[in-house]
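Lab notes, practical 5.
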Amino acid sequence: METLQAYKEELWHNPENYGLSVYRRHGSCHIMRLQHEGSHSVIEDYDADYLGHKAIQNICGFIHKHPYEPIRLEIRLHFSNIRMLPGSVYCEWERIVIGEIDAKLAESPFPGRDFLPRVHRDQLTSKKLIFEITKERLNRRCSQADPANICDEIVSKRASTLFIACIYHKLDIDIILHLVQDHGYNDGNLPPSTAVAGQ
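Output from the prediction step:
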């Protein structure tokens, strides 16, 4: 925990990093001893409870095979960061999200594919970001619509990822609402590309 705090403080010491949020990306646990090596588990899309369960399983399995050997449990946590406040580089919420998606896609282990791991996606689909982007878009066109109501609609219909994907592809709020309200599309029922192209 102290290491994480030290990392955050070092990161935030630079004024250019204002607005960055640090989060756990994934983790691993490994049982080791001089004579024998136990199971090694890597947990992608970091889940603390699951990593703990895997560590316990690995310890029990090792003790079962080598009951009199002392063990060492090595746990590694890997972190990432994402910009969550407008700053000098991105002055608009929408540009923050698009910039962060581009940055995370560039790090993807699947070049040429638009794959965004869940752990990054969860950071970019928060209710706060959806609200701020909606408010920004509505202000830009001087709309009287309530951004809080639209945000609640997106979140309650479980369409946060769909919303952010549509923002990334520069679709208008009205089209996004049409897809969600009139067609019932959401994160578990994504529209085919033809449905979006036809709007």
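Observations recorded by the TA: DSSP finds nine helices and three strands in the chain. The chain has two domains: 1-83, 86-199.
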